[in-house]
C-alpha cells in the first residue's frame, strides 16, 4: 500500500526536522539512502556548512538590476524618507494647521509612506551580502508574503489619501458650503478607518495566493581534498516564492481588481481634480475667498498630487500588468518593473522636499521647527516653536516691529 502524502511529509519532519512537499521529501530520502548504501555518512560538522543557498544571481540578468537598486538606491532613500515624512507628521501637528481636515489625510499619508518604504528593509538586508545569512534567509522568505501585503496596503492607502485630499480641495474651491458641512474632523477619521479596513481586505489575498517553498537538496562535502578523507553529506535549503496554482483564477481577479480600484480609477480621478484645482486656483482671485492656511494646504495638495501622478502612475500600472501576467514575463518587463518600483519609493520620499522647495510658508515652519528642536535654551526653544506656528508674513512684521522698538529703546537717552 502506497503511503499517503501526509505520512511522507511526517517522515521528513521526523528524519530531517523539515516540512517539505511530498515529492521533494521522497527525493531527499532516496538520495540519502543511496549515499548511505555507498558508505557516505552524514557530516558531523553540518552546523558549520552552508545550510541555505542564496538563489539570487549577483552577476547577470534581472536579479542584478534588482540587487543594484536595493544595495545603492534604497538605503539613502530610506533615510531621506524617514527624515522627510517624520518632519511632515510633526509640522502638520503645529497650531497653524488646526481646523484643517485635509491635514489629517496628509499626516496619514506621511505615515503610510514610511510604512511602505520600510516594508522593504528585509529585502535590502537580503541583498546586502552575496552569501546567505543563516538567520535572515528563512526570516526573509517566510515573511515575504506578509511584507508584500503590508507594502501593498500602505501603497494603496497613500494613493487613496492623495485622492481624498485632492477631492476635498476641489469641494473647498467649488462647493464651499458642502465642504464646511461634510469635511469635518469626525468625518475625516471615519474615512481613514474605513479606508484602512478596505485596503487590508483587498490585499490580504496576497497571503492566500502566494506560496513560499523550501526546496532541500542533498550535498556532498569533503573536508580536505589533499588528504583522502571520505566524503559526507548534508542538507542545503533554498527558498522561492510562487503563485499558488490552486488560486490562479482568484489571483488574476485580485490583480485586475487591485489595478482598477487602487490605481487606474484613483489616478484618473486625481488627474481630473488637479486640472479643476489648477484652473480655479490660477484664473480666480482667491485672495479674499480663502485664508492663508487654506491656500497653503491647496498648494501642498497640488504638489502632492502632481508628484504622485508623475512617479506613482506609471510605476503602479507596470507593477499590476506584471502581476496579471504572472511569473513568466520578459526580461524587459522585469527590468521596467524594478525601475518603476524604484519610482514608487522616490514618490514616498519626495513630498517633504517638494513642499520645502515650492512653499514659503512650509519652508518657514520647517526652519523654525528644526531650530526649536536643536535649541538647548528652553526660552528660545519655546519662542521658536511659537514662531513655527505663525504665518511667515506675520512673522516678518513681528520681527520688524520688534527691531523698531528695540532701536527706539536703545537710542532714547536715559534720565538716570
TrEMBL record:
> Chief localization class?
membrane
Q: Which GO terms describe its molecular function?
A: neuropeptide receptor activity
Q: Where is the G-protein coupled receptors family 1 profile domain?
A: 84-355
The identity of this protein, by name, is: G-protein coupled receptors family 1 profile domain-containing protein
| GO BP annotations, alphabetical order | neuropeptide signaling pathway
Matches recorded under InterPro entries? GPCR-Ligand_Int, GPCR_Rhodpsn_7TM
Q: Which UniProt keywords apply?
A: Membrane, Receptor, Transmembrane, Transmembrane helix
Keyword presence, Membrane? yes
PANTHER family registered for this protein in UniProt? FMRFAMIDE RECEPTOR-RELATED, G-PROTEIN COUPLED RECEPTORS FAMILY 1 PROFILE DOMAIN-CONTAINING PROTEIN
**What organism does the UniProt record list as the source?**
Caenorhabditis elegans
Compartments in which it is found: Membrane
* Residues annotated as transmembrane: 73-94, 187-209, 253-278
Recorded GO cellular component terms are: plasma membrane
Cross-referenced SUPFAM superfamilies: Family A G protein-coupled receptor-like (SSF81321)
